[in-house]
Amino acid sequence: MPSPAMRPSTLHLPQGDWATVLDCLCDRFPAIDRATWQERMARGRVLDASGTALGPEHPYRVGLKVRYFREVPNETPIPFVEQVLWQDEHLLVADKPHFLPVMPAGEYVEQTLLARLIRRTGNPDLVPIHRIDRLTAGLVLFSVSPASRGLYQALFRQRAVEKRYEAIAPALPQLQFPHVHRSRMVEGEPFFRMQEVAGEANSETRIEVLERRGELWRYGLAPVTGRKHQLRVHLAGLGAPIVGDDFYPQLLESRNQPDDYAKPLKLLARGLRFVDPVSGQIREFDSQLQLQW
Predict the structure, then answer these.
(1) Which parts of the chain sit beneath pLDDT 70?
(2) Is 249 exposed, middle or buried, given 0-12, 13-18 or 19+ CB atoms closer than 10 A?
(3) What is the pLDDT of residue 256?
(4) 10 Å Cβ neighbour count for 94?
(5) What are the CA-CA distances from residue 247 to residues 95, 242, 292 (Å)?
(6) Is the Cβ–Cβ distance between 237 and 181 less than 8 Å?
(7) pLDDT tens-digit readout, 266-275
(8) How far apart are CA 201 and CA 213, in angstroms?
């Protein structure tokens, strides 16, 4: 049976001339061979909307809602442990280590912060209210209850959450601090990178210096906007790429190699502060992690 930490993906069967659900799945997902789909069906990992297991001979029907569980054979364990810093009936705040994804994606299914926390708490309703990159460490806020989830999600849409980050990067003695960096960010090449281009700014970060150690400084970063890879792109654009960054300013060939746990990205989601929409109290959380340098 599926792990309680797993959530199914959903496919509404498209128009086609397949004889069975199995035939459709094989055509829709050519990277997964027929024998693998048959084996998953035999273990009850392909279901209809009511949760009834679908077998290899189940007839195809356009629009049928099929729920299936993603699997990654021999998923590599990530040897770092998250910490739960706060939990009540509405919120859970976790300290995520470097290298651990927040959500299942690609080669990561069970080795994710969400899956680990569902197993730990036994609460399948957990949902991250925001996300940080897999290579970034620090605070992630989760909704515990569907009843209040929308109230907390609205905080991020309304930019009502103060977020603080720290990064280790080369010194920028030519700038006056605090420094506000604004730029226009758009998708770059390859698709998973971002880039700064000419035009009206759609991203903004406030940068201050927290500590100086020769050629490297520890920066405090306060993003006003939440663009993908914003902090990494902004510091790289200023000439101070974050230590351990394989994406910016140039994409390094080493990114295709296994993670080097001795060389994490020196970026930490340090703090979150907001007015709780349920209690009206000010909530402030600080990561217990430290950037080593």
Answers:
(1) 1-6, 72-73, 106, 254-256
(2) middle
(3) 64
(4) 27
(5) 24, 10, 20
(6) yes
(7) 999 999 999 9
(8) 32
